[in-house]
What we know:
Layout: E1 9-12, H1 15-23, E2 28-33, E3 41-46, H2 51-65
Antiparallel strand pairs: 1-3, 2-3
Amino acid sequence: MNQNHTTKTKAVRSKRMAWLLRKAGFPILSVEPDRSKPEYNVYIFEKVPGFQEAFDKIIEEAAQKN
């Protein structure tokens, strides 16, 4: 990943979470192999203003469905 060191990023393991974040307007910076499970991918997002709130909201909505 070729970025400057001031860019904060978040690695998302869930394909569904990545899809929902992308649908909410947050572009995927890159897709990389998961270091602990190389057969899976992680989706790298930039932590821009509003990202964490959208991330938390998706988790909260998923928890309410269970």
